[in-house]
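cron nightly-structures :: item 1 of 1
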Amino acid sequence: MISRNSNVSGPGDKDPFHVDLPSEEASALWEHDKPTAGPMANVFSAVLVGAIGLSCMTGALALGLGTPAEPGSGMWPFILSVVLISLSVALALFARRIIDVEKFSSSSWAVLAGTAGLVCFVFLLPVIGFEIPSLVLTFVWLRFLGKETWRMSSLLSFTIVAAFYIIFVLLLGVPLPHLF
């Protein structure tokens, strides 16, 4: 009879929960080989984020800020714009000190593809409703950017769009442009 505390695995069996972590030497080698960007990349990123913040701030002011007691539709975008601009200034000031960054590489194009998908989504939303653009955007992100399987991407896309439709259109009555 085997007691609860006895080891049931044999002498040559490997523990299924044991994970071999890389040694410190291997980690240091990997960190050394990782491509890094310099201070100019930080300054470029700071300028880009600052420009986005200023653009959003202009749009927020056009929407109207309102008052703290009765905020307008531009209040929240304005606050986020101030945060973006503040972070871009901080990044520009500390550009030389920040060294833990990665260089733009071929994998950076995925960010551009994701952003382009969002821009298309924004332009298509008022024209054909949110269902089809949301379905396509979710599918593309899952399948091509997230490397999910075709089946999982399809299933999750339909499920997510259906859940958003039920929550926002049916239950909350949010006036989203929609087909159904």
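cron nightly-structures :: done
Residues 105-180 form one domain.
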